[in-house]
Write a structure and sequence with these properties.
Elements lengths: L2 H13 L7 E2 L13 E8 L14 E11 H7 L2 H13 L5 E2 L3 E3 L4 E8 L2 E12 L1
Parallel strand pairs: 1-2
Antiparallel strand pairs: 2-3, 3-7, 4-5, 5-7, 6-7
């Protein structure tokens, strides 16, 4: 399977949760509103798993969603909205879920709150995957 097909399947599944207009996809121009949250998506491919010689290698990696909320909004409203969004993404990618028939979630997604980056509070969700 191609990396493009894997990336597309994961991104399409993420968009079932909404936020299409607030999503910064790889390789596309995106300018967030200064006072609005958005999510930034990246697909990080690792060395493929190899099952011996030949074409038996399977792509694997991390689908990473960075939730980027304005610091002022988090200070005013608290971290509840960020946590709820992160947990919704985690729930949408449970371990062993097959996405788009091309990729499988390898383990329960990890949520990490990174803190402040410029004017944004950042929380990331990492979904580890392997080609199906």
């Amino acid at each position: 399977m191609t990396q493009q097909a894997i990336r597309g399947a994961l991104q399409t599944h993420l968009l079932t949760l909404g936020w299409a207009d607030e999503t910064a996809f790889e390789g596309r121009t995106f300018t967030p509103a200064a006072d609005e949250p958005y999510q930034q998506v990246a697909t990080l491919f690792a060395e493929p798993n190899s099952y011996g010689l030949g074409d038996g290698a399977l792509e694997r990696g991390i689908f990473q969603v960075s939730l980027r909320y304005p610091v002022s909004r988090v200070a005013e409203d608290g971290i509840g909205q960020v946590t709820a969004r992160a947990e919704a993404i985690r729930a949408a990618f449970p371990k062993n879920l097959t996405v788009g028939g091309v990729v499988k979630v390898a383990r329960r997604p990890e949520i990490t709150r990174l803190g402040v980056d410029g004017d944004r509070d950042v929380t990331i969700i990492r979904v580890r995957f392997i080609e199906r």
